[in-house]
Amino acid sequence: MAIQNVALIGGTGTVGAPILEALKSSSFKLSVLNRASSKSTYPDTHVITIPDDLNVTRVAQAFKENSIDALIIAIAGSRVAESKKLIEAAFKGGVKRLIPADFGSCDSADEKTNEILPLMAGKKVIRDYLISLQDVERGTRGKMSWTSLITGHFFDYGLTCGLLKFNVAGRKAYILDGGDIKFSASNLSFIANAVVRVLEKPDETQNRILYVHGLYVTQNEVLAALEKATGNTWEKIPQSSEEELAKERPKMAAGDKEAVEEIVAVWGIVASDWKQRKGFANEMLGLREDDLEETVRRAVGKM
């Protein structure tokens, strides 16, 4: 399978923007999907304008007219209905490879994760839909394939917004279960590079859930790097992951969005060791881990 023409939707988002830049620097011919009412602009990038309602017939026609081989969906994973429309259009429009919005902190293929975090169920719905289409022949267009990339916490982004349980401004570290749990996380640029590598290896990556990480660390290791970067001794606040989940889950059930973020933060540390997962793909994709101290120094410097 050869991939040449790649389309991206969500190119101004947290993960979409770095994916856009990585694709612009790659050998692929890039197009960005932009809704008709969107105010987003993409200098020096080919833009395909699509209807606001993601009309499947019209979006599929746009894929055909632009000979799109691969579609990357970088909108929020919770937008299930929109993702399904885009996938249906990709299927009808002859797209060969689809990368859904499965990036993120937790493993949506894990049964316990879906129990703890029902919002992950939407990502599973999308993947199940892709699986239902993967063996369907489309005449001369062949079959459509997919790749899900599970990346762990967005490390450099999460370090600055509390996702990793560190309050950089307040020099406070909320340490779960002693702080020595190894977890997988990835800088945004690493995720973007992983997307490019997937497209460069279409045969090896088709119809697979792939786990990748740019950092494999503990909270205590991150804290040591933060204290070195800031020149301060931080306050350590011990927490129990069990107690935090028990406290926040009723709030989540009542619709508290901050509780959802807290559960994602906790579960993305205590249950995200990708090296133990079948499908850990760093080596297959030729990905090298990032340096923790350099990452922390850069992130703190940007604050």
TrEMBL record:
Q: Which CDD domains match?
A: PCBER_SDR_a (cd05259)
What is one Pfam family matched by this protein?
NmrA
Q: What is this protein called?
A: NAD(P)-binding protein
The UniProt record lists the keyword Protein transport? no
Question: Is NADP included in the keywords of this UniProt record?
Answer: yes
Q: Where is the NmrA-like domain?
A: 5-131
Residue spans making up a coiled coil are none
Q: Which InterPro entries match?
A: NAD(P)-bd_dom_sf, NmrA-like, NmrA/Isoflavone_reductase-like, PCBER-like
Q: Which domain of life does this protein belong to? A: Eukaryota
Q: Could you tell me which species this protein originates from? A: Trematosphaeria pertusa
> Keywords, A to Z?
NADP, Oxidoreductase
Molecular function as annotated in GO: oxidoreductase activity
